Amino acid sequence: MRAIALVLLLVFLSLTARAADESLALAREHLLHGRAQEALKLLDPLEAKLASNREYNYLLAQALLDIGQPARALFPINRILRRDPNDATALLMLSRARMALGQAQPAREALDRAKKGQQPAQIAERINQYLSIIAAAEEAGATRFGGHLEVSVGYDTNVNSATGATQIALPVFGGAIGTLSTAATKQSDSFATVGGSVGLKYPLTANLAVVAAAGASQRLNSSHREFDLRTLDGSTGLRFTSGPNEWTGVLSAQQFEVDYQRFRTTSGGSIQWRRVLAAGTEVSAFGQVARLAYPSQGLRDADRYVAGIAVAHALGKERAPIVFTSVYAGKEDERADNVPFFGHRLKGIRFGVDKAFSERFAVSASIAYEERDYGGQDPLFLVGREDDQFDFRLAALYAIAPQWILIPQLTHTYNRSNLELNRYRRTALFLALRYAF
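-> structure tokens emitted (437 positions)
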């Protein structure tokens, strides 16, 4: 009888072991295909029996991490490490769990332990990936302050963005020919510009930060000083990050001066959503509201609304071209009565590419188009104004030293309008020296 009982016990244990092996194999298959919840349903009932089994603990920890239970995953991970403190795979999982719990330093310590031994290439690569993730997380959680200073010199074929015509017909006066003043016609000149900006990111929590920025620029023309330009701007707001999603909302203000007199002030706000999709792809959406005020031309005061989306994609790995595009639409509503010809609807598209050829040299190019359809009839030309604006930009960036960048740049604008007074071409070629800090 004892012999029979022993045989039956051995058969039972064999069947139990086989059933456990089959459960582990099926759980492994579920995890391989991203079905962590199904794997956990198989593994949970076996914990009392297989708590000392390394493969079981590994699969259980992986399933728990995949479904977002890093705290519970620490138990099977620690069971593996108690038996082998240098188990590289378990140390990787420990680092992953600590990162998920927001514990960057313990996560780094686990990776440092894993790096001490001679590891297979795949494990070594994964360790470096995790270290990069931790470094990025630490950088995101740190207070950051930076900015740039820039000086440039160049030549502009149309410093006042004016028509090349010197005489135009005026339908309101029966087609009489009017001669334009010098200030209203195209003027070319050499120029110098000095400017800079500063930016701050101050974390309030792990996911929320205050962001602020300020900038200023002054452009000095050689001859036509009446078209000297000055810009002052600033913004402040909040940035919230959740996984791959980032939301930023800011309030901003800008003062634009011509000939050292306020020409336009802008105040408003914007909101942007950004998300990293597949490797190398980023998508964003934005909305802007602004109040435009012209101190010396109150009839032009308007409220501006713009919304759009943008996509950027890297066409490969390191130093591969990055292509980007954006589309947007909006309107400017005139605030004064009986001047609909100052308001307009707009829509546009922009496309560009950035290509780094080395750590020190890169090229950037973009082309943009904007269509503007103005309301009502222009009082001088007795037709509704329609503009099609094309912009082209080509720039090279060369790092001549750490933090110092030399930027030769070419820009061209063509505003095609059905009103001669608003039709113009403008080309600028300049060389900038930028110091980034």
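The chain has eight helices and 16 strands.
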